[in-house]
Amino acid sequence: MRLKESLRLRVKDVDYAMNQIVVRNGKGFKDRTTIFPDSLKPELTRHIGRVKEQHEKDLNSGFGAVYMPYALDRKYPNASRQWGWQYVFPASKISRDPRSDQMRRHHVYDRTIQRKVAEAVKRTDINKHVTPHVFRHSFATFLLSDGYDIRTIQELLGHNDVATTMIYTHVLNKGGKGVRSPLD
Questions:
Q1: CA-to-CA distance for 10 and 163, rounded, in angstroms?
Q2: Per-residue b/e over 143-157, b at no fewer than 16 CB within 10 Å?
Q3: Residues annotated as part of the active site
Q4: What is the DSSP track for 11-58?
Q5: In contact, 78 and 97? CB cutoff 8 Å
Q6: pLDDT, tens only, 70-119
Q7: How is the chain split among helix, strand and coil, in percent rounded to 5?
Q8: What whole-number distance in Å separates Cα of residue 16 and Cα of residue 30?
């Protein structure tokens, strides 16, 4: 997932039964599904439990609404306070929405995540430029190296053109034209 897609993720779009995440309004304003790893379920379940507690506190304090895309706030006036519409990664504070002038909890700011990744990289011996987007590239590269077909990867990444996905194949070309030395 792209960083903004992750931050805009709503509780209702995490599907435990199907092991998938529904990405709404991704790049090109398209919806798609991507995989939801079993290994993340316990930690994400605990996280979402904490988010639900925060949401209930917000509701009890007269808040609890989130931004609703398009005209959904007019079509479903109470949906912005419903649990399923809440952000999986909400901001730590309630703030004034400049579009509506309402006080509500937005999602985590993208710069916050970018800074956290940069801080984590500084604590390691990694001597490469690492951003949240690098994880997306790594995801695609590992799928390719595990033998998944390029069309499946294209769909998971939400690329319109397979040529965009094909960029990841260059990583699989190892030094020496991919030939393994007999000495190894």
A1: 30
A2: bbeeeeebeebbebb
A3: 2, 27, 133, 136, 159, 168
A4: GGGEETTTTEEEE-S-GGG--EEEE--GGGHHHHHHHHHHHHHHHHHH
A5: no
A6: 889 899 999 999 999 999 999 999 999 998 899 999 999 999 999 999 99
A7: 50, 15, 35
A8: 22
Give 8: exposed, middle or buried? Use CB within 10 Å, 0-12, 13-18, 19+.
Answer: buried
Exposure b/e, 26-47, CB count within 10 A at least 16 = b: beeeeebbbebeeeeeeebeee
Closest CA to 90 of 153, 174, 6: 6
**Dihedral angle computed from the Cα positions of residues 64, 70, 9 and 80, in that order, rounded to the nearest 10 degrees:** 20
Name the pTM for this structure: 0.87
CA 49 to chain centre: 18
3-state secondary structure of 87: strand
**Which stretches of 42-143 are assigned E, i.e. beta strand?**
90-96, 103-107
How far is the CA of 144 from the CAs of 14, 83, 154, in angstroms?
25, 37, 11
Q: Which two tokens stand for residue 58?
A: 């917000």
Tokens of 30: 């398209």
